[in-house]
Amino acid sequence: MSVLTTYPGVYIREIPSGSRTITGVATSITAFVGRAQRGELDEPVPIGSWPDFERRFGGLWRESGLGYAVRDFYLNGGSTALVVRVARDAATATFEVGEVTVEALGPGSWANPMLLRVSHPSPGDAAEVAAGQGGDVTATDLFTLEVYEDAEKVDDEAPVETHLNVTMVDGPRRFDLVLQSSRLLRATGVPTGARPDTGDITPATEGSDGDAPEAEDYVGDPAAGDDFAADKRGLYALSKADLFNLLVLPPPTPAGDLPVGLWVDAAAMCVDRRAFLIVDPPGATTLDQLKTWPATSAGLGGPATRNAAVYFPRIRRPDPLRGGAVADFAASGAVAGVIARTDATRGVWKAPAGTDASVVGAVGLSVPLTDAENGQLNPLGLNCLRTFRVIGSVVWGARTLRGADALADEYKYVPVRRLALFLEETLYRSTQWAVFEPNDRPLWSQLRSSIGAFMQDLFRQGAFQGASPREAYFVRCDEETTTQYDIDRGIVNIIVGFAPLKPAEFVVVGIQQKTAQNSA
User: Boundaries of each Tail sheath protein subtilisin-like domain copy (predicted)?
Assistant: First the structure.
């Protein structure tokens, strides 16, 4: 933009450089969908640690495999996770606070021991607080609600939540609005009437945990008219999340199996969201059954399986809820943690497998595999967990479900596919600024410059193969990629190519005996 010059002198104006920095997206945000003891239903809740999961969802539970999977995730190096709770025929506990019905935040028997205690402030203090709230709030409208998790320990423990100076009338501390910040309770409807009397309140109706979820509790039952995708429930609650990279579906019970029909819906979700699915075969699957299980029983096939990988067998580790007795658990949570740990230490382009990919917490595997058995599964695109002396249990495979030798797919390897997904998501988010910009050479140059700088940074980190940037990647956005016909339709075309690093699956060492003839 030109400067209006009115007097003799020097004029300063800032000129945009046209350079827009691209920052790579996260690579190991892991979504878990399963049964929990407590917590909201059908909401992707972000957590950052195992204690966070314990606070929000109740921790380990004998009736569910979710807690064990999340715990394995954090034991093995996981960081950020999203948890979606599903339930079947579970009931929610309710409390009557005056004329207002208050529900526990999510169904389950966890809320049955809770106790709510109502108290009134002293008249002098109440008058001062009511004046500060303004409006129609009076001193006789104020009350305090204390929440105790266990009615039998109410005299020995402090309340887990205290809501001070709330009211049933409209004002800044209206009861239902204040409870929106609670991690335990929600008010139904808008409160009216007088404040509740002082005293203790126990559940008016008790909650129940229900049964283990079935397929329709994750994706809905079309025959019943359910449309979970539109309602964003179950598995499709992840539609509310901004970003996730890995998807784990723990079995409904620790020793159980996920309904096989869910894997197809989960794989489709991952394709749509540029995420990667970690698949657990059934616990009782034999070696011969596993060879055909993904395509037959689970129904996984076609290009969507580029975004999925199977890991076999299950891991064995002590169960804290059973006095440390060793039991078998699905491996997906631990594998997701290994992937997150590898991303943090080496990068998304490094295969999450090998001697560095140890499974922390595992004392063994449900099916110890030999080299020969491993050799039967690997060419079929099925990844193994192995136990080696000194090293312990490790992830010993890095192929997608399109990684069978017979398919010869370009996304045969997990790190290659995940690097492509990382680039797609990053460039999708970082080129939004170009929408509605003038579609001509200055825009093309800016796009080439920004994307080229990002790719060059990845090249320096060792993400691509090649001795020079020319051999490692290219970025094209010019008259050849965007023709006048494209311009007339409002389209700008960017082509980004990269030479991926592929893992060294087979290390072949040639041994030759040295003799006098070849010693020179």
Answer: 273-401
Residue 238's contacts (CB-CB under 8 Å, 6 or more residues apart) are 31, 33, 44, 82, 84, 244, 247, 269, 273
Contact present, 203 and 111 (Cβ < 8 Å): yes
Q: Label the pairing between strands 30-34 and 246-248.
A: parallel
Q: What is the spatial distance between Cα 163 and Cα 36, in angstroms, rounded to a whole number?
A: 26
Q: Give dist(CA 253, CA 212) in Å, integer.
A: 7
- Give the list of residues 6+ apart from residue 172 with CB closer than 8 angstroms, or none: 133, 134
Q: How many CA atoms lie within 13 A of 209 on its CB side?
A: 16
Domains of the chain: residue spans and CATH: 30-88+210-416 (3.40.50.11780), 94-201 (2.60.40.4290), 435-520 (no CATH)
CB-based contact 469:512 (threshold 8 Å): no
**Token output for 166:** 């709330």
Specify the 3-state DSSP secondary structure of 51. helix
Q: How far apart are CA 436 and CA 339, in angstroms?
A: 38
The b/e string for 32-49 (b: 16+ C-beta within 10 A; e otherwise) is: bbbbbbbbbbbbbbebee
In this prediction, residue 342 carries a pLDDT of 97
Residue type, 471: E
Q: What are the residue ranges of helices labelled H in 351-440? A: 371-377, 414-430
pLDDT per position as a tens digit, 397-441: 999 999 999 999 999 999 999 999 999 999 999 999 999 999 999
What are 190-217's pLDDT values in tens digits? 888 889 999 999 999 999 999 999 999 9
What letter does residue 166 receive in the DSSP assignment? Answer: E
Q: How far is CA 199 from each of CA 145, 252, 297, 357, rounded to the nearest angstrom? A: 10, 40, 57, 56
Question: Are 327 and 319 spatial neighbours (Cβ–Cβ below 8 Å)?
Answer: yes
Closest CA to 498 of 431, 411, 436: 411
